[in-house]
Design goal:
By secondary structure, the protein is of the alpha+beta class. It is built from 3 helices and 6 strands. The chain has helices at 4-18, 21-27, 52-63; strands spanning 28-37, 49-50, 69-76, 79-86, 89-99, 102-109. One of its GO terms (molecular function) is sigma factor activity.
């Protein structure tokens, strides 16, 4: 049986697959926060991003509509999260926090040095 967290993550994944910014924003809590760990090879936002509008934009740029990429819902830190792969190689792993039925926190790992265990062979 799916819980509210799982449903919120699945809604976020579906919005990513459709590259639907309005649906991304709808899946997010109004006060959502995103933090990125990019490492030096893949620089991104230097600080946390706050608010559904700006977090939706960040997610759209980093995770949505990437040719040849697949967003899946998988266990990340013991709860439903997102993994973005291209050609079997993980390019992003996202741990998700929720508040009720909305996504409230995203921890987005883009650092290639931390993604090796997520690659599919």
């Amino acid at each position: 049986m799916r819980d509210r967290h799982d449903e919120a993550v699945r809604a976020l994944a579906a919005a990513c697959r459709r590259a639907d910014t309005a649906a991304l924003r709808a899946a997010l809590d109004a006060d959502a926060v995103a933090v990125c760990d990019s490492g030096a090879p893949a620089p991104t936002a230097p600080h946390s991003i706050h608010g559904a509008r700006d977090v939706a934009r960040l997610v759209a740029v980093l995770l949505c509509g990437r040719p040849g990429a697949d967003v899946t819902v998988e266990a990340v830190n013991g709860r439903a999260g997102l993994v973005l792969r291209r050609g079997g190689r993980a390019v992003a792993v996202v741990a998700v926090g929720t508040a009720g039925a909305a996504v409230s926190r995203l921890w987005i790992v883009l650092n290639p040095a931390k993604l090796g265990g997520w690659h599919r062979r």
